[in-house]
Amino acid sequence: MNEKDLYRPNVAMIIVSNAYPQKKEIFIALRNDLTDIWQFPQGGIDEGEEVHEALFRELEEEIGTNKVKIVAEYPEWISYDFPPKIAKKMKPYKGQKQRYFLVKLKKSAKIDINTAHPEFGDYKFVGVDEALNLSASFKQAVYENVIKHFKNEGYL
Question: Residue 36 — left, alpha, or beta (φ > 0 → left; ψ -120 to 50 → alpha)?
Fold first, then answer.
C-alpha cells in the first residue's frame, strides 16, 4: 500500500440549520463510542461511489435525513491521522482524507440520530467557536482550516 492509500476516502459535512444565513449555527454531534467527543457527521466513500452520492448516503445513515442543499464545498482533499487507539480499529488506514461540504437543512428535513446503526448519542446546533472547542484534538486542525476557508468565503 502506498502512502496515499493509507488514508481512507471520506466525506464530511458542516450542517447549518434552515435558518441560515440569518443564523450561522452549525450541527455537532456527540459520538456514542468515545467519551465526550463531538464531531461533524462524516463517513467513508464506498468503492465506485461518487463523492456526492456518499455525502447524501452518509447524511441519511448518520442523521436520518439527506434533505439538504449544498451551499459550498472545500476546494481540496484534507487529511488527518488517527490517534493510536482508533488506528488499531481502522487498519490498514492511518488516517482519513476528506471532502468537506457546507450544507443547509431544508425546511422539510427532520433530524433523527436513532438510525439503523446509531453513531451519535446527542446533537446540538452551536456557534462556530463552540464547535471548535468541543471537537476531538486530532481533528482540530482540519476543522479550523475548513471553517476558516468557509468564513473567508463569507459562508460562516
Answer: left
Residue whose C-alpha cell reads 482540530 in the numeric block: 140
Instruction: Report if pTM > 0.85.
Output: yes
- Among 70, 91, 94, residue whose Cα is nearest residue 155: 70
* Contact by Cβ (8 Å): 41, 59: yes
For residue range 69-80, list pLDDT tens digits in order: 999 999 999 999
The stretches of the chain forming alpha helices (DSSP H) are 51-63, 84-89, 128-134, 140-152
CA distance 9 to 93: 10
Cell numbers representing residue 111 in the block: 433530524
- Cβ atoms of 156 and 150 within 8 Å: the answer is yes
Residue type, 25: E
Provide the grid cell at 41.
Answer: 457527521
